[in-house]
Design a protein that fits this description.
By secondary structure, the chain is an alpha+beta fold. The chain has helices at 38-53, 59-66, 88-96, and strands spanning 6-14, 77-82, 106-108, 111-117. The protein is built from three helices and four strands. Strands 2-1-4-3 form a four-stranded antiparallel beta sheet, with helices on both faces. Residues 13-23 have a biased composition (Basic residues).
């Protein structure tokens, strides 16, 4: 479990043309990532977020199927982390959330994310 100065979160990452690493577990050669614009990734993630918030979809199930992060194998679970361990925009968004909340779109060098704070 996370210590007092740590948080725990899950996320869904959609990579795009501007992502620093243009490959993922589900697109090892980066063919889809290299043709996905940031705008298209944001629109896809907005739709996913709406489905989750409305109860049409489960965060962990969607993360397992859709996320470009290897944490998808754990339903998007990143485990506990402290300040300085994640990219700054991701860290700031996670710490700003209350447990159980889901972020708006968060932009990092890795791509675009939605984050669910779990502890």
């Amino acid at each position: 479990m996370a210590s007092r100065d740590q948080v725990k979160a899950s996320h869904i990452l959609i990579k795009h043309q501007g992502s620093r690493r243009k490959a993922s577990w589900k697109d090892p050669e980066g063919k889809i990532i290299m043709t996905t614009t940031r705008e298209a990734a944001v629109e896809q993630l907005k739709s996913i977020r709406e489905d989750i918030v409305s109860g049409k979809a489960n965060f962990e199930d969607v993360a397992t199927r859709v996320s470009d992060c290897s944490s998808a194998k754990r339903g998007g679970d990143l485990g506990p982390f402290g300040r300085g361990q994640m990219q700054k925009p991701f860290e700031e968004a996670t710490y700003a959330l209350k447990v159980g909340d889901i972020s708006e779109i968060v932009d990092t060098d890795s791509g675009v994310h939605i984050i669910k704070r779990t502890a």
